[in-house]
Amino acid sequence: MDIATVDSYALSSPIDPPQDRPFHGGSRRLLKRDVVLIVVETGDGCQGFATAGASSSAMTEYFDGDSQGTFADIVDGPVADALEGETIESIPEAHDLIREGSVPAGDVTEAISAVDVALWDIRGKEHGVPIYELLAAEYDTDPTLELPLYASAGMYMEPEGFADQAELIEQLGFFGYKYRPGIGPEGDRRTVELLADRLTETEFMLDVHTWWKLGEAYGRETVRELVAHAGERGAYWVEEPVEPDDHEGYVELAETGAPLAGGESEESPEGLVELGETGAVEFLQGDVRHHEGFTGCRAAVDYCAGREGVEFVPHNFGTWLGLAANAHLVAAAPETRLLEYPVFESDPALADVGGDPGMYPFELAFDIIESEPAVDDGVLTVPDGPGLGVEVDLDVVEEYPFRDGPWTEFHYDDE
Predict the structure, then answer these.
(1) Selection from 153, 146, 118 nearest residue 339 by Cα
(2) What average pLDDT does range 247-276 have in this prediction?
(3) Whole-prediction pTM value?
(4) DSSP class of residue 210?
């Protein structure tokens, strides 16, 4: 494969007007969502696409001052310098070229992830087959093309608001409803009680992430009590209840008996496996967009396959292009079945159930591809065209110009 060009486009999807969400100890303002679109082109004109962007763990964009614009500059600079004009026989060779180049250490994994997905897209197009067929050949599996989805929604609402939203998600047929708590210990307990009482078929998951840690609002003992309570009330999992690198904390909380999930914030494929090796998580959450692509996620998939007590469930939060990428992985990976579907406002792929279960507007998430994902009764049919199986709409480059600055701001009551 001859790599001719590597280009990136930093894009912003405004949240206008900005939305303010109160949480325990402060408030959060949502301003926009950013995406970096990566385009790799071969010497014969075949293009591969991928997205990079702030994972839910990458709120460092706010805390450390980095932006998606700076990552696009990295791709157009040292990543392109490392790859353009090179001929590779295998996709991992591109990983090596990026590592050996002048890409800043903190951006290497993200760069490899995006390039890996784009190169698999190219490989599928060159062979005239979807990526899941290529992956299934490597995993020696028969692809599963109908994938149950769990809805990722729910952000900073009163308990009744979470429960009402969850009921809409259940009407849509989703396997599960994942939400972000953080409205205070009593409010969080009340939310769990309502979800346990009002959901009859849909599972519920807590995406704790940073919410119980912002401003050190929740103490360790309170977190332990909340995790235990969620487990007792039937939560399908509690996700990232401690800092990502606090593996001992995961082990301690696993003693409550509550099923734990984590891994999206691990900085490398190796870290993802190390978290699995603690035995503390029942759901290991890699992401092709953050763990060195399809190639990098294989170590975690292989670790989980055939192992009792842990299941690989990809993290997926962003655009429909990212959804397609992770869907191909789930379709082919052994003993992997469940996929995360982020629900944004006015999602055209979802049926009308008399209310909008979306978190906030993110129109770029839909507009980045020319088609809609085939979602019916909470099940996604994996696209079967060559490569990722979707057509990227490059008009988004003009329609969603990048806006500098953080995508979200936090303000604390004690400031």
Answers:
(1) 146
(2) 96
(3) 0.95
(4) T
